[in-house]
Amino acid sequence: MQIQEEKLADTLVVKPLVKRIDASFAPEFKAVMLDRIGSGNVKILLELSEVDFIDSSGLGAIVSILKALAGRGGIAICGLRETVGAVFRLSHMDKIFRIFPSKEDALREFGTGK
Fold it and tell me: How many CB atoms lie within 10 A of CB 54?
């Protein structure tokens, strides 16, 4: 799996190290994230700064992560490139997820504060 993970206080920071979150990456990404949630990580920050393309299967995987949290924690997203940010806006996912410009901003606002 091509992701970088870092635990900062009570937040799991996950950074996919791929350019595309699409049908070839999304199922494995979703499975790994559901495993992390099952292990007790309920506050998740997705840092998508390396990603320059996301399709509906990628968005679906992220929505599945949110649903798996079932109100027990939260998910935030940071570092969106313009192309990925446009997909979030066009699909209205920017209304569902807390999106921050940078990892530092997200950690400060999301509660970890590093």
Answer: 27
Answer whether 106's CB lies under 8 Å from 82's CB.
no
Amino acid at the residue 77: I
| Contact assessment for residue 11 and residue 3, using Cβ atoms and an 8 Å cutoff | no
- Quick one: tokens of 39? 């292990």
| pLDDT single digits (tens) 15-36 | 999 999 999 999 999 999 999 9
What does the buried/exposed string (b/e) look like for 68-104 if buried means 16 or more CB atoms within 10 Å of the residue's CB?
bbeeebbbbbbbbeeebbebbeeeebbeebebbeebe
pLDDT of residue 48: 98
CB 1 within 8 A of CB 35: no
Low-confidence ranges of the chain (pLDDT < 70): 1, 111-114
Dihedral sign of CA atoms 5, 22, 48, 37 in order = negative
As its CATH architecture, domain 3-110 has 2-Layer Sandwich (3.30)
